[in-house]
Design goal:
globular
C-alpha cells in the first residue's frame, strides 16, 4: 500500500485523529473508548498543563483512496528527559490497520520528527506523562479494557517488533478478588503496623472539603514522591495537580477512598478506587451528550458493575516496605463487600515493582493482561 503521512494542523483534522480509534474498534467487545472531550483537552496546549514541559505533533496516515488508515502522536517530555538524562522521543496514541506499510510509515515519521529535535531514542506507547495511558497490550486481548488503559489488536506488537523495537518495560495487570472476609494474616499485619508506626485510617466525608482543605492536592503531591523512582516518571506540576483534582474529585465515591495518616497528621498512604466505567463508556460511545452522561452516572450511583478499578495506590517513600498498604485494604475491603463488588482491576503495575506485587500475596489473584513499552535507537 502507498501511504501518505499528514500532520494534523486543524481542529477538524484533530477530530479525525481522535475518532479514528473509535471507528477502528467500534465493533470490538473489549475496547473501551475515551471520552471525546477529554481527548480534545489532552491534545490542546491551552487545556493540558503538560505542554509547559512537553512538545508534540500529531500525524494521520492516508491510503491511495484518501482514507485514514493510521494515526500517531510524536511527543517530547523535556522534564522526563532531564530527570532520566535522556534524549527520547515518545510515540503515543498509535493505531493502524493490519498493513506493515502503515505502521512503518507512522514509526518512521516519529523517528524523523525526533531526530530533527536532537533526540537519539524512540520509546512508546507513552503519553505526555504517566497519568496518560501507556504500554501496548501483548497479552489479554480477550479481556475487557479499563478507562485508564490502551486496548489494541494482537497484530500491533507484531508490527512494532518487526520494525526492530525492543522491550523497554512491561506492566502486568491483575484481577484481585474481593474476599468473603479480610484474610487473617493481612488483618494481623495491619494491626501491628498501625500500632508500631502510630498510624490511623482517615475517611473523607465531603468532596468540597477535600478540595478546600488542600487534602486533594496533598494526595497528588504524595503521588509525586511515591512514583518518582518509577519508569519514565516526571513530577506533576501544580497546574497538573489542579487539573487532576478537578477531574477526579467530582466522580469519586469517598467510601472507596482511604487515607493513612501518622501521629503528626501527615498523609503517608492513599488508596483511591471506583466502580469500573468500562461498560458505561462502551455504551456512551465516547460521548457525554446527549445520553453518555446517563450511562456513566448509572454505573457510579445506581447500578454498579461487579468490577472496581484501583485507580491509585501510593505510599510515601519513607513508609514503603513497612506493610502500610495493609491498612488501606483492611479499610476498603468491607466497603467493597458492602457495595457488591466481586473483583478489582489493578490497572498496570510495573513487573519489576515487587513492592506493589507483594501487597496482593494474601488475596486470590489472576494476572490476565500484560502490556509493553518498546524502544529503539534513532
Amino acid at each position: 500500500m502507498s501511504v501518505e503521512i499528514k500532520k494534523v494542523s486543524t481542529k477538524k483534522e484533530l477530530k479525525k485523529f481522535i475518532r479514528f480509534n473509535y471507528e477502528l474498534y467500534k465493533e470490538n467487545p473489549y475496547s473501551v473508548p475515551d471520552l471525546y472531550d477529554d481527548m480534545l483537552n489532552t491534545f490542546s496546549p491551552a487545556k493540558n498543563p503538560a505542554f509547559e514541559f512537553c512538545e508534540a505533533d500529531y500525524f494521520l496516515a492516508y491510503n491511495e483512496q484518501g482514507e485514514i488508515v493510521g494515526r500517531v502522536a510524536a511527543i517530547i517530555n523535556h522534564r522526563a528527559n532531564e530527570t532520566w538524562n535522556r534524549k527520547c522521543v515518545r510515540f503515543g496514541w498509535i493505531d493502524f490497520i493490519d498493513d506493515p506499510a502503515v505502521s512503518e510509515a507512522l514509526i518512521e515519521t516519529v523517528k524523523t520528527w525526533g531526530r530533527e529535535r536532537g533526540m537519539d531514542e524512540i520509546e512508546g506507547p507513552l503519553g505526555f506523562t504517566d497519568m496518560d495511558a501507556e504500554g501496548m497490550l501483548i497479552e489479554g486481548f480477550d479481556q475487557l479494557s479499563t478507562m485508564a488503559t490502551i486496548y489494541n489488536f494482537p497484530y500491533y506488537p507484531q508490527h512494532i517488533e518487526r520494525l526492530g523495537l525492543e522491550k523497554s518495560a512491561d506492566w502486568v495487570e491483575m484481577k484481585i478478588y474481593v474476599p468473603d472476609a479480610i484474610p487473617e494474616k493481612h488483618k494481623r499485619i495491619s494491626d501491628i503496623i498501625a500500632r508500631k508506626y502510630e498510624l490511623r485510617v482517615r475517611k473523607l466525608t465531603s468532596k468540597r472539603g477535600l478540595k478546600k482543605s488542600g487534602v486533594a492536592h496533598e494526595i497528588f503531591r504524595l503521588i509525586n514522591e511515591a512514583y518518582a523512582p518509577l519508569f519514565g516518571f516526571s513530577r506533576m506540576t501544580e497546574k497538573q495537580i489542579d487539573k487532576y483534582v478537578n477531574m477526579y474529585i467530582p466522580v469519586l465515591d469517598l467510601r472507596m477512598v482511604s487515607i493513612v495518616e501518622n501521629a503528626e497528621h501527615e498523609i503517608v498512604a492513599v488508596g483511591i478506587s471506583m466502580a469500573s466505567l468500562s461498560e458505561a463508556l462502551q455504551r456512551a460511545k465516547g460521548k457525554l451528550f446527549p445520553f453518555g452522561w446517563f450511562h456513566l452516572l448509572k454505573a457510579l450511583m445506581w447500578k454498579r458493575p461487579k468490577v472496581l478499578d484501583l485507580l491509585l495506590v501510593a505510599v510515601r517513600p519513607d513508609y514503603q516496605s513497612k506493610g502500610v498498604n495493609a491498612l488501606l485494604f483492611t479499610d476498603l475491603i468491607p466497603v467493597y463487600q458492602q457495595l457488591g463488588f466481586e473483583y478489582a482491576e489493578s490497572n498496570p503495575e510495573l513487573e519489576m515493582n515487587d513492592k506493589v506485587q507483594n501487597q496482593w500475596q494474601y488475596f486470590k489473584t489472576e494476572q490476565h493482561k500484560r502490556r509493553r513499552c518498546y524502544k529503539a535507537s534513532l
